């Protein structure tokens, strides 16, 4: 059902795989609930907005996932190794998008393929990363609801609690760029 559609989930729309990048349910008086979504076409990379009825049936996209390990960057391509076959696969930075900020050598990820062609990469749900930059948090400072911006490895900026300092290892939810806990 469309009501179960979540961010990052692949669906088949008119025979073409799409990935949900945003999903919001809304209900108006005396009308059935609708699900407003933003989808990215995994073949062309184009974004579309689509509204579904909440009870509308959606088909899961016929996508094959392969587990690979990130090894290195070479001339704008990110090189991954399939640890079962030891084949290397090069993916362009455009395909990976914002996910490159979280990539680190030796990280296991999943590459999504459609018709034998890489169309997307899926990071682990959470990763552990060091805090590279943040302001010292004042315990009495509550103007910013007990959080402050911090730069993690890869350059991504996330909100962290005031007690987190430079050098601390934190767990980050890669789907929402959100602090989970200090590790």
UniProtKB/TrEMBL annotation:
Location of the Elongation factor P C-terminal domain: 127-182
Xref: InterPro entries: Elong-fact-P_C, NA-bd_OB-fold, Rib_uL2_dom2, Transl_elong_fac_P/YeiP, Transl_elong_KOW-like, Transl_elong_P/YeiP_cen, Transl_elong_P/YeiP_CS, Transl_elongation_fac_P
Pathway annotation from the record: Protein biosynthesis; polypeptide chain elongation
SUPFAM superfamilies: Nucleic acid-binding proteins (SSF50249), Translation proteins SH3-like domain (SSF50104)
Pfam families recorded: EFP, EFP_N, Elong-fact-P_C
Annotated GO CC locations: cytosol
Subcellular location: Cytoplasm
PROSITE patterns associated with the record: EFP
Entry keywords, A to Z: Cytoplasm, Elongation factor, Protein biosynthesis
Major location category of this protein: cytoplasm
GO BP terms in the entry: peptide biosynthetic process
Residue ranges annotated for the Translation elongation factor P/YeiP central domain, each copy included: 65-119
Molecular-function annotations in GO: translation elongation factor activity
Similarity-based family: Belongs to the elongation factor P family.
Name used for this protein in its record: Elongation factor P
Naturally occurring in which organism (per UniProt): Eutreptiella gymnastica
């Amino acid at each position: 059902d469309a009501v179960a559609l979540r961010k990052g989930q692949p669906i088949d729309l008119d025979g073409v795989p799409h990935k949900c990048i945003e999903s919001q349910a809304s209900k108006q008086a005396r009308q059935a609930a609708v699900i407003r979504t933003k989808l990215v076409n995994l073949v062309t990379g184009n974004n579309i907005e689509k509204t579904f009825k909440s009870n509308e049936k959606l088909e899961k996209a016929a996508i094959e996932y392969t587990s690979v390990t990130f090894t290195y960057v070479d001339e704008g391509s990110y090189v991954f190794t399939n640890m079962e076959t030891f084949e290397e696969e090069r993916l362009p930075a455009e395909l990976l998008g914002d996910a490159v900020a979280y990539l680190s050598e030796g990280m296991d990820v999943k590459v999504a393929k459609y018709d034998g062609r890489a169309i997307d990469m899926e990071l682990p749900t959470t990763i552990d990363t060091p805090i590279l930059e943040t302001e010292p948090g004042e315990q009495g400072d509550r103007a910013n609801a007990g959080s402050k911006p911090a730069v993690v490895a890869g350059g991504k900026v996330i909100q962290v609690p005031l007690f987190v300092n430079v050098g601390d290892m934190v767990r980050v939810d890669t789907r929402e760029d959100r602090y989970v806990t200090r590790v």
